[in-house]
Amino acid sequence: MVITQIKARGIYHASTLDALNKVPRHKFVPESLMESAYSDSPLSIGYGQTISQPYIVAFMTKTIQPKKDFKVLEIGTGSGYQAAVLAHIVDSVYTIEIIEALFVQAKKRLDDLNYDNILVKNMDGYYGWEEKGPFDAIVVTAAAEFVPPPLIAQLKDGGKMIIPVGTPFTTQQLLLVEKKGNKIKTKNLMFVRFVPFTRAKDQ
Ligand code: SAH
Fold first, then answer.
1. What is the SS3 string spanning 102-148?
2. Confidence band of 178 (pLDDT split at 50, 70, 90)
3. Cis upstream peptide for 134 (omega within 30°)
4. CA 99 to ligand 1 center in whole angstroms
5. 126-137, pLDDT tens digit by residue?
6. Is 75 in the pocket of ligand 1 (CB under 6 A)?
7. What percent of the chain has pLDDT over 90?
8. Closest C-alpha among 32, 173, 196 to residue 98
């Protein structure tokens, strides 16, 4: 998977490749899809949600330029796969999932796999995780219509956020948001298709 899908598309970031080699992706998909776990696509994880395509996980991971001492916030735990990839690289990962059943599954899966530097919470991630912030980086894995202001507030000075922004159910722009002092710089990276960022009132 790493050679044919990730390196072949130009990602050579060593710690990202190493983390993707270490995380057992087949343990993050439903049993019925285990044989497709390493295929070049997103896969259904139930409740209308998906585990992202491996290339997208690699791209988002390397784009935040993760370092050993980083504290990272993820919005949209889903299967827990992206959080596990990050956990091999950084000091601590805080991840929020809005769907209770997925939160319960992901928490158990990450505990069973002994990821002791990941904390999972069941909430609407729009508000971030203020008590644990500010964060060196924030990774949002659901498509929002705009960048939630509480997430910008919880980004450290010099921090990076990667977030798909656009209309749900069409393609979105994957944005890199960088905070420098009180300036916010955003850059369009590519078109992507993510499941929608929902709000607590929609549940
Ligand atoms: N990162 C995941 C892929 C997640 S799919 C993985 O590696 O498997 C996007 C996830 O975001 C879904 O599980 C969805 O329920 C969740 N989500 C959507 N809106 C959210 C919100 N406001 N707060 C937290 N999670 C949200």
1. HHHHHHHHHHHCCCCCEEEEECCHHHCCHHHCCEEEEEECCEECCCC
2. very high
3. yes
4. 8
5. 999 999 999 999
6. yes
7. 96
8. 196
Look up the domain containing 60 and give its range.
2-202
**Whose CA is closest to atom 19 on ligand 1?**
197
Q: What is the pLDDT of residue 127?
A: 97
CA distance 106 to 112: 10
For position 203, what pLDDT does the model report? 59
Q: Does the CB atom of residue 66 touch ligand 1 within 6 A?
A: no
Ligand 1 nearest-atom number relative to CA 82: 7
Contacts of 165 (CB under 8 A, 6+ apart): 143, 144, 145, 146, 147, 172, 173, 175
Q: Tally the domains of the chain.
A: 1
| CA of 76 relative to ligand 1 center, distance in Å | 3
Q: Which residues are the active-site residues?
A: 52
Q: For residues 161 and 169, give the distance between their C-alpha atoms in angstroms, rounded to a whole number.
A: 22
pTM value is: 0.98
